[in-house]
Each structure stands twice: as C-alpha cells, then as structure tokens.
Amino acid sequence: MKKMFLLFLGFIILLSSCNKVPDKTIFKKLDTDELAKAIKSDTLFVYFYENISKKVDNMSDIKKAKYNDITYRRLFKYVKFMEDTTYWKPIYEKWKNEWENEYGIYLSKADSVLNYWKKYLAENSLDKYVDIELDSIETKYYDYKYYEYIDGIDKVNLFFKLTPLQGTIEQICFNYSYKPKIYSDSIYYRKYKCISTSPFSSQIVGYWEVNYFDRDNFGGKNVEMFLRDYDMYIEITNIRKDGVNIGIDNFSVPKEVSGCLEFEKYYPINFEYKKGDLIKKLIYKDYLSRLEYYIKQQEVLSVKKDKLCFDFCNDLLK
Predict the structure, then answer these.
(1) Statement: residue 1 has pLDDT above 70
(2) What are phi and psi of 182, to 5 degrees?
(3) Average pLDDT over residues 69-73
(4) I want to staple 221 with a disulfide (CB 3.0 to 4.6 A). Which of 35, 185, 225, 243 is the partner?
C-alpha cells in the first residue's frame, strides 16, 4: 500500500512539473517568462531546452511539418517517462527473466564452440615453433650538436628475443600489441607487425623501430618499467619452416570465432556483443542479445506512450 502511494505521489509531482512547461510547438522559441517558469518547475528543463533548441533549428521544413504537433510539454513529459527509473526498473527485471528463459541457453552453446576452437588453436599454435619475448628497449635522443632546436626522442627500437623450439626457422612474421593497464577493460590497444626473413636455428635478438606515435610510450623506459604500465601481447601469425609456409590463416577458423576470440583477448568490454554475432551466424539466426531484447521491448512501450515523440527522438539520433 505504501509503495502504491509513493508511486502515485511521484506521478502527481511529475504531472505538476510538466503542466508548467509551455504547451507550445518545439519549433517556436520560448520567451524569457515562459522559460523562467518552466525552469522553476523543473531544473532539468534547462538541459532539455538547450539540446532541443539546437537540434530543431537544423531540421528540414518537411520534418518540422511532420513534428509540428509536438509541444515542449508533450516532449518533456515523454522524456521524463523514458528516464523514470521507478517505472522501468521492475520492467527490466521482468525482461531479464524472459530473456534468460528464451535466449540464455545459447550463451553456453557459444562457449562450447569457443572452447572447441581454443583447444584446436592451442594444439596447432605457432608458439610451439618459436618462443618470443621482449628483451630490451633502446631510446635514441636527438644530438644537440646538429639539432639545436629539436628536443626529445629521435627513435625507439624494441629488441625481441626469438628462440626456435623445433629446429631452423627460415622466416617469421609476428604481431606485438599493447594497451595501458588502466584501460585493461577497454577497446583501446595498439598492434604492429614484425617480419624477419633471415633463417635462425638458435636464439637470436632482433630489433624493430617503434612507430612515431608510440615513441613516448616506450621512450626512456626499460622492459620492467614498460610492463609495469602496459599489457603486451605477442602473436605469431606466419612462419616458414622446411620450405613450407605455415600461417594462422590456414587453420580454417570461422571468422565469427576468430573475431570473438580477438575481442575476448583485446576488447573484453565488448566480448559479449561479439559473442552475440557468433550465435546468430553459427547457432541460432534469430538470437537477440540481452540489450537487443531490452531495446525491442522498450520500443513497444515507447511507441504506445507517444509514437510521434518516439519517431522524433529517433530522428534526432540519426
């Protein structure tokens, strides 16, 4: 009973504040008095009005005619509805359970597919032929004798230690990539290719120059300092051994799987999104991710609330 009373009270307050917003088309500017009353009734109207004013000015005459019936009061009421957590929270809980019952099973099926290919890749990994590790970092600075007006780093070289594990390696191609530890769950990372065409049958140390835009991240640091601040990944992509080229492209891994595994390693924050693509392509074409399901269900209620405002807001996002 108390909960129902609070919901009712919140609705009355919302309705009261919305009713003080002018019932004037959003394509006409509010005068100072109208604006002052609307802001006094709800301070959020400031942000709302600033954003709407900027965007409607750029609309075509056709769209202005289409949405001419939308008033500040009508749209503000719709926006408040969309942001009403009291209304949406229990609905999202209901949708969560519905999604779990209908689509949750496909996540475990996707995991089974990924685990199969992880095992396959581990058994066929090119790492079994060569061990690679970052050995040292060399920083070269400008010589002030010749570059009087230039200050700072001239170039940075990364030295990698390559150890053959199964005899002579004739050629090798590998990628190194890195990302800041503070952004370890983000999509941010850097990836570069290194190639060596000289055969080696024992441990060697080769060096590759760092890209200009990455110099400051490596410059002036030793390996320990760099690995303190960044996560580094090394991936062997191709080798030539006994006159035969062996590459990860020969493994026939479905692109949806390889893409998903790359996201899991380098872009963990978006891994679940990529897993959804895998499910649609390889397991169940009508699969909806949790977010897609929520958006679909929310669209139904939003259209039911006010289709014209719904269409208008979608147009603003295009």
Answers:
(1) no
(2) -70, -20
(3) 96
(4) 225
Give the range of the structural domain holding residue 306, as residue numbers without chain letter: 2-83+292-317
Same domain, 131 and 222: yes
Q: Taking 90 as the threshold, does the pLDDT of residue 176 lie above it? A: yes
SS (H, E, C) 183-245: HCCCCCCEEEEEEECCCECCCEEEEEECCHHHHHHHCCCCHHHHHHHEEEEEEEEEEEECCEE
Asked whether residue 265 is assigned to any structural domain, the reply reads: no
Q: pTM higher than 0.90 for the full model?
A: no
Within-domain flag for 286: no
Domains held by the chain: number: 2
17 contact partners, CB below 8 Å, separation of at least 6:
41, 42, 80
252, 279, 302 - which closes a domain: 252
Summarised one tens digit per residue, pLDDT across range 37-64 is 999 999 899 999 998 988 898 899 999 9
Spatial CB neighbours of 84, under 8 Å, sequence gap ≥ 6 = 14
Contact between 139 and 218 under an 8 Å Cβ cutoff? The reply is yes
pLDDT in tens, 102-148: 999 999 999 999 999 999 988 889 999 999 999 999 999 887 655 55
| Rounded to 5°, angle at Cα 317 from 312 and 318 | 100
CATH number at residue 134: 2.60.40
Residue of 51, 194, 204, 54 whose CA lies nearest to 131: 204
- DSSP E strands, the chain: 130-141, 153-164, 171-180, 190-196, 204-209, 230-241, 244-247
Beta carbons of 71 and 43 less than 8 angstroms apart: no
Q: Could you report the per-residue pLDDT of 224-283, keeping only the tens digit for each? A: 999 999 989 999 999 999 999 999 888 888 989 988 998 887 777 788 889 999 999 999
For residue 145 the two structure tokens come to 């004798």
How far apart CA 168 and CA 41 sit, in angstroms, is 78
Give the containing element (helix H, strand E) for 282. helix 271-282
Which pair of structure tokens corresponds to residue 139? 């920083």
> Tokens 């692109």 belong to which residue?
255
